[in-house]
Amino acid sequence: MDLPVMPPVAPMLAKSVATIPPGMRYEAKWDGFRAIVFRDGDEIEVGSRTGKPLTRYFPELVDAFRTHLPPRCVLDGEIVIAREGRLDFDALLERIHPADSRVRMLARTTPAGFVAFDLLALGDTSYLDAPLSERRDALTEALREAADPVFTAPWTDDVDVARRWFDHYEGAGLDGIVAKRPDLGYRPGERVMVKVKHERTADCVVAGLRLHKSGPVVGSLLLGLHDATGRLQHVGVCAAFPMRRRQELMTELEPLRMESVEGHPWADWAREEAHAQSRMPGAPSRWTGVKDLSWLPLRPERVCEVAYDHMQGDRFRHTARFRRWRPDREPGDCTYAQLEEPVSYDLREVLGT
């Protein structure tokens, strides 16, 4: 491979802000795997946000890139999978599998797509120093003849349109808006874009904790919600605490510590079949295949309010943010029924297909 921009390249990143800023270019925030695609003739390499290759996990996209991309180019974008008109991140996670036969089976049954939103190189020209406006014009022209499963992300410079996208696109599985300065060059690894994500709150049962890697203080709180049958399901964690607060939480929660999991709602978490019926901590990671055993059970008697952006199935898609304790709430009242459901929106309308 011989390109003006060579792998690995760390993608340009975004920092979170509370509101959509004026005077910028706006795109939807895609909920998938960030990927930088390098093509030099028949040679294709797909790099992840961390620089590790994703190429082997998406063979159908490798074929599509040879068909739909310019012969020599470097693109930044997102690998996504859609089901029933909305993005499905769980289906993407299933692709990270060591067995090539399973990866190829999933490529046939749940094929992925690629949404391009930036151009780093084309032919013998590097676009890293070119302003975003120039890069986007070149990207649109380069992919003018591309077709499913390769798409160009829609954009607007109208902040009112961006606000409408923020409200409507969530129903298609997108999780916010990204804003970029039109005069900005491509800055690998730097947080020079901004992102605005949805935030909602929920009252959750604190039913366990994991220790911090630095020692015997709280690393994360394990959160639960009761389903329609009354069973407490593990829905995610909140983890961003200053070190002093981690120590305070350990002291606060000590009276709830259980000597063993016996009698705990997640007592049977170690059994594989239990994970098929309920969501609980300790399930094998889709990235490593290793079961996480390192959690401490707490009597599920305390309720906290957390902020979250959106749900992926029956759990929080990202780490939740601790807001406050809720001594006025009963654990039994912490159910899925309190969660707001976004209005459905067809992903095909986002992509203009």
Automatic annotation (TrEMBL):
EC code(s) of this entry: 6.5.1.1
Domain of life: Bacteria
Enzyme kind, highest EC tier: ligase
GO molecular function: ATP binding; DNA ligase (ATP) activity
Residue span, ATP-dependent DNA ligase family profile domain: 114-207
Key words of the record: Ligase
Catalysis: reaction(s): ATP + (deoxyribonucleotide)n-3'-hydroxyl + 5'-phospho-(deoxyribonucleotide)m = (deoxyribonucleotide)n+m + AMP + diphosphate
InterPro entries according to UniProt: Adenylation_LigC-like, ATP-dep_DNA_ligase, DNA_ligase_ATP-dep_C, DNA_ligase_ATP-dep_cent, DNA_ligase_ATP-dep_CS, NA-bd_OB-fold, OBF_LigC-like
GO biological process, one term: DNA recombination
Stored Gene3D superfamilies: DNA ligase/mRNA capping enzyme (3.30.470.30), Nucleic acid-binding proteins (2.40.50.140)
Family indicated by similarity: Belongs to the ATP-dependent DNA ligase family.
NCBIfam families on file: PRK08224.1
Protein name: DNA ligase (ATP)
